[in-house]
Amino acid sequence: MNASHAHRHPVFCTVVPPHLLDKASLSADSRRADLAQRTLEHDSMLRTRRRVTAVRGIAPALGAPVSDEPSRTIYDAQHRTRLPGKKVRGEGDPLDKDATINRAYAGLGATFELFLKGFGRRSIDDSGLALDATVHYGEEYNNAFWDGQQMVFGDGDGDLFLDFTVSIDVIGHELTHGVTQYTANLAYLGQSGALNESMSDVFGSLIKQYSLEQTAEDADWLIGAGLLGPNVTGVALRSMKAPGTAYDDDELGKDPQPATMDDYVTTNRDNGGVHINSGIPNHAFYVAATELGGKAWERAGQIWYDTLTGGELASNAKFTDFARLSTAAAAARYGDGGTEHRALQKAWSVVGVPIVG
């Protein structure tokens, strides 16, 4: 039922969480404060618009074959906020002179490829959905987002944030919100919202690992590495290996993510802390993937994908629901009591989420 309704109830998902921009908006540097406030206000407006505007689902033609090749289109907003903007590169077109356009195109392709070759999924909706992205959105816009239909990238201000196409995991993160939208359709609130965010971090990281041919041991497990500006004390937006350690900066504050339920954050901000408490299931995935070793998308990623798409994950799922279902998925695919099953049991135990039922 979730999947059939998902495309009609999209959420507006940004990669930079509001708590981080809130902190920057208090900067003594008026330029930094103004840009952060402008991004917050713009995101709030888009979020409200997304709630009140029905989004048309894009359905494939009945009986039409679903392609194993992506269909990508990149648009240039030319520093305005009208979408999609001017078409600048289509599927199969040669490299553009603009590196931002090329990075967006490559990131869409890498995401399509991992979902196809890793999990047999044909695009975001498993029906060959065309992948559209807009670059150069707004003026010094400090965010990137999935709006229910396409990807949108800001250029950053060059100070606190750089061009949002520089991190392939950010591209994968936002597109995975689309996969979640078309499958479990996890409600963007509280623990289900944190799971929604975590799914995007998990598959965003896997897309980066896949494109770099990294094993779980080789990966940095950072989300948004290379995105923070030269004046920021930090390495990324989030760390799956060590939640709470990605940044500690005078302007952006300290990374608030918990790694375990002992430090779960109760807040009314950010839809109940969806970008904060996602650190807990993120860390569970890291523990499972490193416990299993090798290429993380092959076993740990498969288990997470099975759980997300299996039809049993309710849209209002709690962490305990995902722990139970993912552990059961590991047993179903790889055997009860096997290496994968034990890795899942350990992962959820480490982060303090009980496996009940």
Task: Write structural notes for this entry.
The structure is a single chain. With 357 residues, the protein is an alpha+beta fold. The protein folds into 2 domains: 2-182, Roll (Elastase, domain 1), CATH 3.10.170.10; 190-350, Orthogonal Bundle (Neutral Protease, domain 2). Helices cover 42% and strands 10% of the residues. It has 11 helices and 10 strands. It has helices at 2-6, 18-24, 30-52, 99-119, 168-182, 190-212, 270-273, 279-292, 300-309, 319-334, 339-350, and strands at 13-14, 72-76, 86-90, 131-137, 144-146, 151-154, 222-223, 238-239, 248-249, 253-254. The strands form 3 sheets. A 6-stranded mixed beta sheet has the order 1-5-6-4-2-3, with helices on one face. A two-stranded antiparallel sheet has the order 7-8. Helix 2 packs antiparallel against helix 3, helix 5 (168-182) packs across helix 6 (190-212) and helix 9 packs across helix 10. The longest helix is centred in the N-terminal third of the chain and has 23 residues, at 30-52. The radius of gyration is 19 Å and the shape is globular. Mean pLDDT is 92; it is low at 1-8 and 52-61.
Q: What can be said about the biggest beta sheet?
A: 6 strands, mixed
Number of domains: 2
Summing up helix and strand content along with how strands pair, one would put the structural category as: alpha+beta
Radius of gyration: 19 Å
The first-to-last residue Cα distance is 23 Å
The helix count comes to 11
Low-confidence stretches: 1-8, 52-61
- Overall strand count: 10
The SSE order reads: HEHHEEHEEEHHEEEEHHHHH
Output mean pLDDT: 92
State the CATH topology of the largest domain: Elastase, domain 1
Overall spatial form = globular
The percent of residues in helical segments reads 40-55%
Main CATH class of the largest domain: Alpha Beta
Main sheet: which strands, in order across? 1-5-6-4-2-3
CATH architecture of the largest domain: Roll
Strand content: 5-15%
